[in-house]
Design brief:
The protein is mainly α. It is about 70% helix and about 0% strand. The protein is built from 3 helices and no strands. Helix 2 runs antiparallel to helix 3. The longest helix is centred in the N-terminal third of the chain and has 26 residues. The radius of gyration is 15 Å and the shape is elongated. The relative contact order is 0.15.
Length: about 70
Amino acid sequence: MEHMDINIIFMLGGLMLLHCLFALRAFKSKVDLSTNKKWVWCLLSLILGPMGYYGYHGFIPLDRILKD
């Protein structure tokens, strides 16, 4: 393997870890949402990472967010 291939593998691994962390954060969130909406949020966070997490977070009404 070349040096560049190893770097790409580490970068992709880090990106996958980032996406998993945002999905876990959405899953463990204390926001009062139905189970289906929480799963959609987790799925978007897993697929899109921070963009999916904060994108969906913007659609949650402020009265449901409890210091998250």
